[in-house]
């Protein structure tokens, strides 16, 4: 079979009055032009072509060298299997079992003894008489013809055999004789038949006598004209002829129309040939007698023959217009032809749905708005009739619809779509199961179509399903802008609810034109590819008649030729994987995210049924967990797709968390809970850490990733940097301990790729490591608010799979991509340290209450796990085991709220109401369980706590440091000092990770060796202990001087004040809650002033406490308690701020005279150095950085640490230390940080390196308190606490630099998990130390973060407390203690 695509098409011509369209292309077989493809709104060109082929012969000559050199002559009409000449350009020939198959595209074919070939040539004539040819070689599949051809088939008309037009110029007359031979014969025969019939039946034909005579004379005249070569020169005659046949007026001025005019002139001399007139003549058409019916039939045949001559001769003779060099105009022409806004009545976009039926859909809607209900609960509600145009709201409510559809019977065989646009998000349910999400509105991510049937309609079907409509858009309900605060009164109009016929071919034309337009716009203007794309698209439009769908095949084939040109081996390979980035909260809250996940997941599962080769990647265990709980049937489908290799869970974490703010243990738990979920539900751990959208990446992440069994990392956010461009896309990322992960940043610089030409090309052109690794990853699909890939995205990638000049597309998974680039590892460069994000620096400070809640929850969960482990191991209780599920739930809440738009502070206000409730639940539950555990411990110490002569309290230190505190006693004791609350003060020291029993009755008032003192002068307050001398200006409440006693070293810059509050203007370029810009540093606008002289609340000897107050106006009121204890150089600033500012940032500043090119900042499981200068643009970009519990600026012999209990934003440059306290952005939460805040920051002066002077321990101390039981009474003689060693470490180490960070129960059994890290940045050897006997733990196994023993350990070797262990700088290790 031959399927011949007409690629050399000429310009369409359209007569807007008659809608007659022509699409001229010549067909030449073995050098002889014969037939042209054509289309007409009024003429059935198939009939024309078939009639034309009646007398066509195909002559096949066998090999001339053969002894049997006979010719086979086949009638063309016997070979006609299928003709599609109405604009499609297809000519299909076949006979019985003999078929023609496309072989190659060449003008030369070598003789082949095993193949029989046929050569087809397409020719288009040009104005200068030359012809353009395109040759196709086909081979016959007839096995009976064993000899090859050296002469190929020739198509001849019945009268003439012409020379090859490639060799000889031919005149219009010759072409007339050639091309119109059979038409001429038909006309001649028809005229003769008409004449003979008229003469024979003259008396029976029902026409006026005068008309009969005119008719007979005209027939004779016509017969003469057919035999003549007379030119028509009369303009009047031309117009008459063309008007008669309703031909485009431009034909009348074409010299090449003479051939048609010659024949038409003859025919028109007998106007009676106008068959339509005759048919409409009642005197004829109403006659039923045989004579008049036969006369009508003959008239029709003659009319058709004449009209065929016009079509064919005109098509052959008209020149193909030349495309002019007007690229910009042509490019815009293409753009308008695919526009969904302009000219949709005349462009191809408007033809994708040629038939729409609004009446076929009937709707019912719930009578009242609802909350988020299950399907079953929703179906119990009452419903009313509903129509398109109704408005629903307000924001965040839900409506359910019942949809009934009656498919028209005449739509049988059609692809039918349901179209729904409620200007909001929605979800279709069938039989109670989500089947597809819908996204309304007008954004590019809208998804309003749903395919009703797997294939085509049978016609007459009745379809029923339900729709859950959410009164919010894909990006929430922002008021007049994407990231603006919520409009709680927003409404949503039901714009569409209808069915439509989907024209697949029009859609393909639209898609091809869209891609060509993308090439034209995104390749360099002077590039060959852009020029070729413009040419191809223009050709398509020139050949396209949007009113005639039969032209679509022609232009599709034009496009296919362009996109079928293959790439070379050197072209970049882009691994394309579908992806749906769902922010678990952002411009919506958690309850809506659960539905977003279902909408997105259901859609992608459905698309996997449409495209079996489609591969999709989805991260975040939390989303799977919600889906499992709320939509179990959908979740089961997901698991089936995982098994089939279409759906790939990825990431390894519970949520895609922030990469800066969570603690080290939180990082571990993100992976621990995520990886265990993936293993349990899908059978394997994730191999790739998948974090596409977060606001910076801790330098400790590579080690954490490795520790959790992952070696690969994917992200892309650094492409948003606003100062420096990150230099790599594929590289090795090395953490502060030396751990490495293979890392890739998709060069398209998005995790929401639209799978278009632009982003495919950028996947190569943006790849900064392309010479090292010629592979890129593309994550395509609508995201942030969910959705995922659309059908057009999938289709574009398939069409672009291997197109010359565009990267090759490989449909694969993220895992397979990293397996591929692993082979490039030895060529890659290494980046050491943090991946600092040069944008969104305001996220270190925004939503202060959430950051405080997170820090406190992390602290309390750490303490709860420690004390329950301690209690169970001391007493043999099962507290931890009994509350394992509760702990799991609490961790889930904390990890959930560490999502990268929640913890950073960049979500709407409703999110932070959820977050506050979650944090409060964690804090209240942990307090309750810690109190309960202390009660259990107390009950074992003193079975009866209600009687006795002594009063006791049990204290618990959950940190791996000996900590000393000045405490307010729960009852009055002997004391040297009372607090400003009137309570007795005592100094208490507790060993690491231990409980301490304190007898309040016998407690002595021990005077410190060096007390802290307070002195005053007229202008200043002087506070001194054995470590520091602090001077405060009484007139403004600020620090004038801070001196280290050892060495008498002043730390404050001369002439300046420390602990000074400064308000800066804080107006970012766009991302309000996200960004603090560099120019903010340039514009301090106000310094809150002291409202009164510092008030002395306590004056020693245990501690000095001062109260200060600062104020700008009622919008910023700051109250501070400044505390200096006798046992430490640390100064604590317990601060309360009433904050009502707008677009300002509050910082506290400490100008020092310390000179150092770098400052140290605590991060997870360690610390890093950052520059304090602006030598380079990379240094300048770090004008605001993230630190955890402390930052330290030190020179030899002296240093100053700035500590805090819930802040993260630091700036240390040129000796000036700043801590960002509060911001006041107005979007997306207009009330961000408004209200009252309580927090503590501290100064810790020291006279040595931070490693040697307890800076790290001070950070832990500022972020913790001693836990205290209720008081109980007992006699010393009855105290039974030997089971619980007092003030002895449960588990610690013998090395100061090695910190026991976590003690918990194993996830799979009752073993004890102990996690440690090296904190100084050096090598360390250590032993574990426990107040338990060495034999209490029978074995210690080193594990990974998933608590699995490392395979490197011999099963014979048993490690115990007596063994020595080692750590490299900042290394994390996890051990399993087995009892």
From TrEMBL:
EC number(s) on file: 3.2.1.24
Alphabetized GO MF terms: alpha-mannosidase activity; carbohydrate binding; metal ion binding
Sorted UniProt keywords: Glycosidase, Hydrolase, Metal-binding
GO BP term (any one): oligosaccharide catabolic process
SUPFAM superfamilies assigned to the protein according to its UniProt record, in alphabetical order: Families 57/38 glycoside transferase middle domain, Galactose mutarotase-like, Glycoside hydrolase/deacetylase
Domain of life: Eukaryota
Pfam family membership, one: Alpha-mann_mid
Reactions it catalyzes: Hydrolysis of terminal, non-reducing alpha-D-mannose residues in alpha-D-mannosides
InterPro entries for the chain: Ams1-like_N, Gal_mutarotase_sf_dom, GH38_C, Glyco_hydro/deAcase_b/a-brl, Glyco_hydro_38_C, Glyco_hydro_38_cen, Glyco_hydro_38_cen_sf, Glyco_hydro_38_N
Residue intervals of the Glycoside hydrolase family 38 central domain: 838-919
Family assignment from sequence similarity: Belongs to the glycosyl hydrolase 38 family.
Full protein name: alpha-mannosidase
Organism of derivation: Tieghemostelium lacteum
